[in-house]
Design a protein that fits this description.
This protein has 172 residues and is mainly α. The chain has seven helices and no strands.
């Protein structure tokens, strides 16, 4: 929860929500964010994650949940390359890096809650803002992006590896 609250502070979510509520594009912004959250969570944490988990079970790999989370998060990150058509390469690559870490966080939420409701809701809130992309002002933002999202990624990896160890211990 601390990581999610921290992430919402990074994206300035309270201000974005205020802007959405006072915008004449309230319904457009809401439908856009909700559809993106449902679609991306269904594909990345539904189809991709579930497929990687099943493949890992079939092959009997160790740290199956952690590996599956990394693979599905890499695909989630890769899906964001489509934004190159509407933004600068620097902004899109930073977005892809942050999507990798956020994807890992969404896997943690999905595993802990054993469902899709919370990942979809959190994803919706993170995306629910004015239809103006988060902007990056310069090269210094790479340092900030790397530091913040590496921390989120590492916390997610640690949480998932603990979960994997619990699964391995219970199967012995």
């Amino acid at each position: 929860m601390i990581v999610i609250i921290f992430d919402m502070a990074i994206y300035n979510i309270p201000k974005n929500i205020y802007v959405v509520f006072t915008s004449r594009y309230f319904w457009t912004n809401t439908i856009y964010a909700l559809s993106a959250a449902i679609f991306e969570e269904s594909i990345c944490r539904g189809l991709f994650l579930s497929s990687f988990l099943q493949l890992g079970i079939y092959r009997g790999t160790k740290f199956n949940v952690t590996r599956s989370a990394i693979y599905s998060s890499l695909l989630f990150s890769g899906l964001h390359i489509i934004n190159l058509s509407s933004g600068s390469a620097n902004m899109v690559f930073q977005q892809m890096f942050s999507a990798l870490a956020i994807g890992m966080l969404f896997v943690v939420v999905r595993i802990i809650t054993n469902g899709f409701l919370w990942p979809i809701l959190i994803h919706f809130i993170l995306d629910w803002g004015p239809l103006v992309s988060y902007s990056y002002s310069g090269d210094n933002d790479w340092i900030i992006t790397i530091v913040i999202f590496t921390v989120i990624f590492l916390i997610s990896i640690k949480t998932l590896s603990i979960f994997d160890r619990q699964i391995m211990a219970s199967s012995d």
